[in-house]
Amino acid sequence: RLSFCLLLSACSWGWAPGGAAKPKGQGYPHMNSIRIDGDITLGGLFPVHARGAEGKACGELKKEKGIHRLEAMLFALDRINNDPDLLPNITLGARILDTCSRDTHALEQSLTFVQALIEKDSTEVRCVSGGPPIITRPERVVGVIGASASSVSIMVANILRLFK
């Protein structure tokens, strides 16, 4: 599983394990993400891509400060989950997002981690059949690893602190 995730991170960063590849665009704001299901979900913010040019959010892949840190988190999760003595009967999952080496993008991405805490009013929403909608809530993230720069980590911590 680890080698698959490492290959995945290096070759096709837009695919999320546990789900299908999703095109970037309306309805899929987090193409540059990895999701691994688990009993407890940890968040990750890494600069996998460099800052984009000409109005683009993301640029070239960053190997040392981006991919290597992403791989380190995936490796740690894999080691913890495969050791029956560390967390017996508990599996760690992850939701890892790309900051694209931009503080504003990191802040925007960090809001993904609090979506599970925000109640959405669905009283006016009805299915075509007339029944109530089935709304799946995002996983609750219990902690976040990253961001790469202290200044970004402080800003993200301030946002996340509002939601405890």
Automatic annotation (TrEMBL):
Highest taxon of source: Eukaryota
Pfam families recorded: ANF_receptor (PF01094)
Keyword entries, A-Z: Glycoprotein, Membrane, Receptor, Signal, Transmembrane, Transmembrane helix
GO cellular component: membrane
Gene name per UniProt: Grm4_0
The Receptor ligand binding region domain, residue ranges: 69-164
Keyword field contains Transmembrane: yes
Compartmental location: Membrane
N-terminal signal peptide: 1-20
An example Gene Ontology molecular-function term: G protein-coupled receptor activity
Name of the protein in question: GRM4 protein
Membrane topology summary: Multi-pass membrane protein
